UniProtKB/TrEMBL annotation:
Keywords: DNA-binding, Phosphoprotein, Transcription, Transcription regulation
Protein's UniProt name: Response regulator FixJ
Natural source organism: Mesorhizobium qingshengii
Entries under NCBIfam families matching the protein: PRK09390.1 (NF006900)
Gene of this entry: fixJ
Residue ranges occupied by any HTH luxR-type domain in the UniProt entry: 136-201
Modification type 4-aspartylphosphate: residues: 55
Taxonomic superkingdom: Bacteria
PROSITE patterns referenced in this protein's UniProt entry, alphabetically: HTH_LUXR_1 (PS00622), HTH_LUXR_2 (PS50043), RESPONSE_REGULATORY (PS50110)
Amino acid sequence: MTGNDLVHVVDDDVDVRKSLGFLLATADFAVRLHESATAFLATATGDLNGCIVTDVRMPGIDGIEFLRQLRARGQAIPVIVMTGHADVALAVQAMKEGASDFIEKPFDDQVLIDAIRSALDNRNQAGATHPQSAAIHGRMAALSERERQVLDGLVAGLPNKTIAYDLGISPRTVEIHRANVMSKMGADSLSHLVRMALIVESKP
C-alpha cells in the first residue's frame, strides 16, 4: 500500500457512502466521500490519485457522464462502477467509456476490495496496448458459433432471458453457453469478460 491509495466514493445515498467509507477504512484505504459527481468534479483539480468508486445511477451527472467528463479533463484515474442487477447494459457502456471495472449490487465486501486493489495495481497501464490481445483473439477463435452469439449478447448488455429469446433457445441453455464462454475465455467475472471483448474490438 502506498500514500496514493486513496479511494473516492461517489454516491448520492448517504447510507451507502458511510457504509462504503467504513468498509474501505477498515481495509486500510484512505477514503474521501462525495455526495455527487457534480460535487466531486467541482473540487477535482490537478492529477487525481488513487481510484474512484461510483454508482452508475445518480441524479444530475450519472456514472456514464461522470466518466466522460473525467476523460474530457484528461484524468486517467481508474473508475469502478457499481450497478444494479438490471443495469448490465449501463455497466457495459461504462466499460466502453473507460471504466476499469464494474460490480453488480449487492456484492460481497471482498469483491469490491479486490477490485479496488486490482485497479490501483493496474492504474499505470491505462491506455497502453494490452499485452494479451493476441491471446484473447486466440481464445475467442476457439468459441463455437453459438457461444460467440451469447458473448455478443453479453457485451451488448443483454440479460440472459433476452439473449435466449433472440436466439430461440432456453435461458438455461444460455447459462450453459455463458459458463462455457467464461471458461474458454479465462474470465473470472462478467466485467473481466466484457473487458477482454472490448480489447479485441478496439484492436486495429
